[in-house]
């Protein structure tokens, strides 16, 4: 559906022109809504608008955009050169020594107030994604509105709504991420044996897939984080899979264990999602029944996705099928899926109470699950992009049962 815009020689990341276009959309949004400026605190939103990826800590960072087209930032001194390396040219900046003050005797948010004053927007109509920096790693700080002594129009949707429909470049990066998530899953599946430790197999496959990615992509791969690997796979097993987000457990894989897996790639900061339900050894009738029901429900979700429908309508169709055709509504623990991109979960959601209209270019997971207490969970998840006429899977790993059986011998 989507033209892949990266050549075999291109670095796999969003380019400066697209970041500039994103900021221009915000400038227009500010003018349309008669807002004089917006302060963006969320690390993912800062990265989305500027290309500045960083490891969030207790030190507040904010990107400021004004209706007049100015770009400015609040930065701790330890991130200044990092921003200069990645981010756009700034019209102004406020650089503070350290949190909570570094000997300055002033909270970092007071530096932001001075920056807004220099930009000529203090006392005018100011918006923000959230009313101040989020509390993480021991950060204690006042709300932006308290620092400015004025109301602030805080609304995460101001930026997040712009992120819902992905560009061709974003979809290309997620398609590449899917390729490596699929590869990590294949390595993991092929490594599982009776007696395997789930943690060791999961991490071993992730590391080997990462080695393969770096060997193939070389300098085209551009890391956007300090932590984690660009290709990952994991699984949980047995009755623990009846918990939709069950944690790892110690112990070895046994014959007849149900496995619920997860795998993903990260390319240019963009993620993929792949999950599969597997079985160790020959599946019995009980397993086959629930597996077939789960697979049928996912197929309903894949076919229900198309532009013009609401997220709630898609969810209602899937839930109706599970309730009326399968008679398994009591086994549902979560909605059918969610959007994602720079984050593993993004707005909107395939949920009965989300009435967002689906558009071409949105990317969703499709993952209706069935959870049988004391037995197992059953869930496939695929990365799906909305096309002009329907949807297209970007994660291409096998979905059928005969390809998801781990041999015992």
TrEMBL record:
Ranges for domain Creatinase N-terminal: 22-165
Top-level taxon of the source organism: Bacteria
Membrane-spanning segments: none
Hydrolase recorded as keyword: yes
Keyword line: Aminopeptidase, Hydrolase, Protease
Matching InterPro entries: Creatin/AminoP/Spt16_N (IPR029149), Creatinase/aminopeptidase-like (IPR036005), Creatinase_N (IPR000587), Pept_M24 (IPR000994), Peptidase_M24B (IPR050659)
A Pfam family annotated for this UniProt entry: Creatinase_N
GO molecular function: aminopeptidase activity
Residue ranges constituting the Peptidase M24 domain according to the UniProt record: 173-387
Name assigned to this protein: Aminopeptidase P family protein
């Amino acid at each position: 559906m989507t033209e892949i815009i990266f050549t075999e020689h291109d670095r796999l990341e969003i380019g400066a022109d697209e970041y500039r276009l994103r900021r221009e959309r915000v400038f227009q949004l500010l003018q349309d809504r008669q807002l004089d400026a917006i302060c963006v605190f969320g690390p993912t939103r800062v990265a989305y608008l500027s290309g500045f990826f960083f490891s969030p800590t207790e030190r507040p960072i904010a990107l400021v955009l004004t209706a007049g087209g100015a770009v400015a930032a609040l930065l701790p001194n330890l991130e200044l050169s990092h921003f200069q390396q990645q981010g756009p040219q700034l019209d102004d900046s406020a650089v503070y020594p350290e949190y909570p003050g570094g000997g300055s005797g002033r909270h970092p948010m007071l530096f932001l107030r001075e920056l807004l004053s220099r930009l000529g927007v203090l006392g005018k109509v100011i918006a923000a994604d959230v009313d101040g920096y989020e509390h993480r790693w021991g950060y204690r700080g006042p709300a932006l509105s308290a620092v400015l002594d004025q109301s602030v129009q805080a609304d995460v949707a101001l930026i997040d709504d712009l992120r819902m429909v992905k560009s061709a470049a974003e979809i290309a990066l997620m398609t590449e991420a899917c390729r490596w998530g699929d590869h990590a899953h294949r390595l993991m599946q092929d490594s599982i044996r009776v007696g395997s430790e789930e943690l060791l197999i999961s991490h071993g496959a992730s590391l080997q897939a990462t080695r393969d990615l770096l060997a193939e992509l070389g300098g085209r791969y551009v890391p956007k984080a300090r932590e984690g690997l660009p290709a990952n796979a994991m699984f949980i097993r047995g009755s623990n899979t009846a918990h939709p987000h069950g944690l790892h457990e110690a112990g070895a894989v046994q014959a007849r264990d149900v496995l619920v897996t997860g795998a993903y790639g990260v390319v240019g900061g963009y993620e993929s999602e792949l999950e599969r339900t597997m079985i160790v050894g020959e599946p019995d009738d009980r397993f086959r029944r629930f597996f077939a029901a789960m697979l049928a429900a996912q197929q309903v979700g894949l076919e229900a996705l198309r532009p013009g429908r609401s997220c709630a309508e898609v969810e209602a169709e899937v839930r109706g099928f599970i309730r009326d055709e399968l008679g398994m509504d009591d086994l549902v623990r979560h909605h059918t899926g969610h959007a994602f991109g720079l984050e593993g979960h993004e707005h909107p959601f395939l949920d009965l109470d989300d009435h967002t209209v689906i558009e071409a270019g949105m990317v969703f997971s499709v993952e209706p699950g069935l959870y049988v207490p004391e037995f197992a969970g059953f869930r496939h998840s695929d990365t799906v992009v909305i096309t002009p006429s329907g949807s297209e899977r970007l994660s291409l790993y096998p979905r059928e049962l005969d390809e998801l059986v781990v041999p015992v011998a």
